[in-house]
TrEMBL record:
Name of the protein this chain belongs to: Alkaline proteinase inhibitor/ Outer membrane lipoprotein Omp19 domain-containing protein
MF-aspect GO terms: endopeptidase inhibitor activity
One Pfam family in the UniProt entry: Inh
Domain Alkaline proteinase inhibitor/ Outer membrane lipoprotein Omp19 per the UniProt entry, residue ranges: 28-102
Disordered: annotated span: 200-225
Organism: Methylobacterium symbioticum
Length: 225
């Protein structure tokens, strides 16, 4: 093939490759994400874009990632294969996130600390961490008065992610009937458990605040003033 034809073919191939439609699973993953570890330390944010960075896609970590999560701070590109994979500028794989039945993206527990990757939310920069939850809290409607005081503590039989829970008085009947007596950090959620088989799922919603995960009337858990 003449050189000028070969050059033209290569140019057209490159243009076609860059003009190829962006897969839906890439579009669905584009945006700002929080990466945080299961040891309760502050995480950092990374923006995933649908712009090509070589054979992958462009990633832009926040400036504080260089201090908080060095591997994330080095990320320059990303791709998706059963979960997000972050790459350095030289193509080296930095972190590999997988999705399990919970659908949350996280790294393998075999190489602690486990890194979680969740959609960034205002005021949220770390994962739930059982030791940091001990002490007094209150359940309330968003911005409203207290419905029920709660106290978390570490009992002698509690495992690393578990807490003993006691409700105080006065306690709204809607909360009291749950008979809450224990809690457990499960990935990026705080689960409150009661008897006989009641539960309440909470997710971080800001500094020292959690919000009911889904369904029913909104509810939040905050530190008392």
């Amino acid at each position: 093939m003449p050189r000028f034809l070969l050059a033209a073919w290569l140019t057209l191939s490159t243009v076609a490759a860059h003009a190829a439609p962006i897969p839906d699973f890439i579009k669905d993953t584009v945006g700002e994400w929080l990466v945080a570890t299961d040891d309760g330390k502050p995480g950092c944010r990374i923006a995933l874009a649908a712009e090509r960075a070589g054979k992958n896609w462009r990633a832009t970590p926040a400036a504080n990632c260089a201090v908080r999560l060095v591997a994330v701070g080095r990320a320059a590109a990303w791709n998706y294969d059963g979960g997000v994979r972050l790459f350095a500028a030289d193509g080296k794989l930095l972190l590999e996130f997988g999705e399990d039945e919970t659908t949350i993206m996280k790294t393998s527990f075999e190489t602690p600390p486990v890194h979680f990757m969740v959609k960034a939310a205002p005021g949220v920069d770390q994962a739930p961490y059982a030791p940091a939850l001990t002490g007094s809290w209150v359940l309330r409607r968003p911005g409203g008065s207290a419905l029920c005081p709660l106290t978390f503590s570490k009992g002698p039989k509690d495992e690393a992610t578990e807490l003993t829970l006691k409700t105080g008085t006065p306690c709204d009947p809607a909360v009291a009937r749950l008979r809450l007596d224990s809690a457990r950090v499960e990935d990026f959620k705080l689960m409150l458990y009661g008897k006989p088989e009641t539960s309440l799922a909470l997710e971080p919603s800001g500094p020292e605040s959690y919000a009911k995960a889904a369904g029913g009337k909104p509810l939040e858990m905050v530190r008392p003033p």
